[in-house]
Amino acid sequence: MKIHEFQAKEILASYNVPIQRGYVVSDVNNIEKIISKVQSDFQSNAVVVKAQIHAGGRGKGGGVKFCSTTEKASEAANEILGMNLITHQTGEAGKRVNQILITEALDIKKEFYFALMYDRSKNADVFIVSTEGGVDIEEVAEKSPEKIIKAWIKDDTYPLADAVNIVINALDLSSYKNASEIFSNIYKCYSQSDCNLLEINPLVLTEDEKIIALDAKVDIDSNALFRQEKIASYHDESEEDPLELKASEYGLNYIKLDGNVGCMVNGAGLAMATMDIVKHHGGEPANFLDVGGAANVDTIKNGFKIILSDPNVKSILINIFGGIVRCDRVANGVIQAVKELNLNVGVVVRLQGTNAKLAKEILDKSDIDLVSAETIDDAAKKAVGMVL
Ligand code: GDP
Ligand code: MN
């Protein structure tokens, strides 16, 4: 689960990690009040206005503005709050800015890239840092990969202190006494908050020699939210794809993609395999959809509704392996759904496993227009054939 910059900074601050301080505003009527509060609380005439959306690259998209005067701050805040912000991470549609963060302005001496994540290949958490901060890290990785330094934390072989030292040396911060405490605290924050990713870009050294987190991007492991009550409350529904949100209400695992072959599958593994085979036959899946192991008529119907809400969908491929779920139930669900939902796209059905024969009979007997397939390969070929 992604959270906003100001929320990530709140968590960091609770671990004594120095952050660029500020206040959030969601009501335009409070803009002037908050600007003057930031100015007086942090003794900084200049302020920074920052759009709070779950996407990076806000600066380049016009969602982060350094304002040297109160007038400029007010102008920027009024412009950014409520705007539709487009960055390289939002997609073409952009995202509406419902909240802004107004912060103290810092005089920056150096900008670093900092991240903590889990490296599966090493079975260890890893610090990733670079002296080339503030800019696109992807660009640094491509043009000068030697400027990206990694330090793994593997309790038995490389303890935290060693990794922290590597980071401090890489960023040339060894003369700053609190540096090691800061990096250890960030690690503690990352680990105790169940982060998948904790990225600070940039982490800055200010003109007055302070190390401060200027930005913060945090992704929390959703499976750990049951023990992260505070963080779970940071969930912002307005940031989610409406279809994905609806699907989760139905108990379906749905992820929207860009293609036009809708896929309804049970089991994440089979769903992935189905998408692969669709691609293999020259098609593009419109979605990932795992209806789960216990699919019934309603699940199938809801799955159809979700898939059909995507206007790009031109055919639907149903690939269900009947284990716990019986194929005849799925067949009845498909028939009901097709009858109720006024389908105007082709549907290919492949049902195998428990009661597959019965399911085929039910489908054959029904008067609805379905294409049946025996194998996953055949099914994918037929579904792709309908859209090419
Ligand atoms: P992003 O574009 O979404 O990554 O948003 P950031 O929070 O990283 O802000 C973008 C850029 O704005 C930073 O990389 C800085 O260069 C600049 N910026 C943000 N806050 C300050 C500040 O207090 N002082 C100065 N000089 N620049 C700032
Ligand atoms: Mn940033």
Helicity, as a percent range = 25-40%
The secondary-structure class comes to: alpha+beta
Count of helical stretches: 13
- Label the overall shape: elongated
Question: What is the total tally of β strands?
Answer: 18
Q: Tell me what portion of residues adopts beta-strand conformation.
A: 25-35%
**CATH-defined superfamily of the largest domain:** ATP-grasp fold, B domain
Q: Mean of residue pLDDT?
A: 94
Q: Any descriptors?
A:
6-stranded antiparallel β-sheet, 388 residues, Dna Ligase, domain 1, 18 strands, 3 domains, alpha+beta, 4-stranded antiparallel β-sheet, binds guanosine-5'-diphosphate, D-amino Acid Aminotransferase, Chain A, domain 1, binds manganese (II) ion, Rossmann fold, 13 helices
In short:
35% of the residues lie in helices and 25% in strands. It is α+β, with helices and mostly antiparallel strands.
Structure, explained:
With 388 residues, the protein is of the alpha+beta class. It folds into 3 domains: 1-20 and 107-239, 2-Layer Sandwich (D-amino Acid Aminotransferase, Chain A, domain 1); 21-105, ATP-grasp fold, A domain (Dna Ligase, domain 1, 2-Layer Sandwich); 242-385, Rossmann fold (3-Layer(aba) Sandwich). It is built from 13 helices and 18 strands. The strands form 5 sheets. Strands 7, 8, 9, 10, 11 and 12 form a 6-stranded antiparallel sheet that branches. It has a 4-stranded antiparallel sheet with strand order 1-6-2-3, with helices on one face. A 4-stranded parallel sheet has the order 14-16-17-18, with helices on both faces. α2 packs across α3 (70-80) and α11 packs parallel to α12 (356-365). The longest helix has 15 residues, at 327-341. The two termini are 36 Å apart. The mean pLDDT is 94. The site of guanosine-5'-diphosphate (GDP) has 17 residues, from β2, β3 and β10.
